[in-house]
Amino acid sequence: MAEREPGVTPLPRDLGFRVGMLLAFTIAVAVAFVVYVLYARGGFEATQRLTLIADNAEGVSVGMDLTFSGFPVGTVRRIALAEDGKARIEIDVPRRDAKWLRRSSVFTLERGLVGGARIRAYSGDLQDAPLEDDAVRQVLRGDTSEEIPRLVATMRTILENIEQLTGTGGGVQTNLANLRVLTERMAGKQGVLGGVLGSEDNAKKVLASIDRANALLASLGAVSAKLDAVVAKTDQRVFGQGGVVDETQRAAAQANAILGDVRESLKKVDAILADAQAASGNVKAASTDLAALRAEVEASLRKVSGLIDEINRKWPFERNTEIRLP
Amino acid sequence: MVDAPRAALAGWLQSWRRVLHFAGYALAAAASRASYTPATRAVTVKQVYFTAWQVLPLFLLFSALLEATVIRVVIAASREYGIADYALDLVLRGLVLELIPFLTALFVALRSGSAIATEVALMHISGELEALERAGDDPLALEFVPRVAAAALSVVTLTVLSGALAIVIAYLSTYGLSPWGFAEFTHVVGKVFGVPTLLGFALKCLLFGAAVAVVPIAAGLEATAKVKSAPVAVLGGMVRLFFVLGLIEVVSLAARYI
């Protein structure tokens, strides 16, 4: 065979060298690629572990990314079912990317319509303490495919309502018809008023009423100005120096004094009468008359006393319940 | 009427048994130290030269054209469907891991597998094999096992180089000459090529390479002393080779994705 082939294709002298070079080059490419893959998989990088606890790890696969602001900062290494029935998603985070994850970071697991699930990290406060190694966090779950049926049901109800509203004879159409009439009236001679009041006649009436009300208000303004002057004068006359109130107060004080005198006098009469009754106890007829007289005097005295009390109560300027005797 | 299908079935089983038998023999020879002699090395080097070196420029040109087209199509389609994030992932998985090894194996099968089958059949017909056996040499160990090793090496070499070219073209198609896509590209590469994936890829390439030589040699050995038996033997061998390559591909896909 070795003798036959050179007839077809001549073998070069450095056959072994060429083949060796090809194989060596291939091995170099393969080794370089393997090293590149190891580098790409973080084989030369220190990582820290983060464990996320989820109710349901559906859609999560080993090798999936944990993203922060759209950049991958970690890789799912293992998914396991814990003793309590929850899914444990173990994630390796390279140390150089760990700075994006803080103690207060929130982790979400979302399932979109296209592609697998996505695990995202949100760090609200990048000044917070860094996430510790072997941290365990709850993951919040949002599922588009679970939301869609609910969304569709709600949308259908809404659409039915809209259809009813917009259908023939529906609320919207009636409203639109009314609105058209209204805007036509508004565009008429009496403008917006015509639209609001329904007809031009009514609008005219309203305009006349407003005119009248304006005139009335003007005259009322004049009246009130006059009234103001009167009030000012009255005020001066009544409450001013030497005014009505002043005089009245003085008169009342005098009346009070007079009435006090009267009461004293009556008290004296009462005493005399009591003495007289005692002295002339045997005189029957006289005593009877005297008793009647005395009752009358006592009644008068009570009335006067009540009158004084009344004046004192009603007159607020002086509150002397005690009456000074002259 | 009944005998014809039964005979055909028996012949079919016989062919497959011969393939398996030679495969086992080649595997045993590759594992034994006695096989590594200067003579076998010379045959191996020559076979690698014919199978890989000679076709290398043409093959790489063809690969580059095919890869550039497929990558463009994948990127454009995924942009259209709104899954541009997965374009690179798709290219690496579909093209580098599946399409390139399979196409390389088919290419080597077409070019060298058919040649090997014809050569073995002709050696059988011309009585060269019997002459070797009479001289005390084992033609399987001396001529055929080195060819199997060489075919495996060639397929691995062509696949690795073509795959590396595909990765470079994928980067250039996605990011152009900008170096800023490197981090993202590296991330996707790291995600797609796990250790099991790489091992499976290497195993698949080796199996492709072995099949490309084993099945045609077994077919060539089926030829009788008659000259007209050669085309039948080569034809049967090539069909069998196609099925074996397809089977390896399907099994590897099933192992990865099912």
Secondary-structure blueprint of this entry?
The complex is a heterodimer of chains A (326) and B (258).
Chain A: H1 5-8, H2 15-40, E1 47-54, E2 65-68, E3 71-81, E4 87-94, E5 106-111, E6 117-122, E7 135-143, H3 144-166, H4 171-186, H5 191-197, H6 200-239, H7 244-279, H8 284-314
Parallel strand pairs in A: 1-7, 2-6, 5-7
Antiparallel strand pairs in A: 1-4, 2-3, 3-4, 5-6
Helix pairs in contact in A: 4-5, 7-8
Chain B: H1 3-31, H2 38-53, H3 56-80, H4 87-126, H5 128-134, H6 139-175, H7 182-192, H8 195-220, H9 229-257
Supply Rg of chain A.
56 Å
Q: Biggest sheet of chain A, in brief?
A: 7 strands, mixed, barrel
Q: The biggest beta sheet of chain B, please?
A: none
The general outline of chain B is elongated
Quaternary organisation of the protein chains: heterodimer
Keywords:
heterodimer; A: 326 residues; alpha/beta; seven-stranded mixed beta barrel; 8 helices; 7 strands; B: 258 residues; mainly alpha; 0% strand
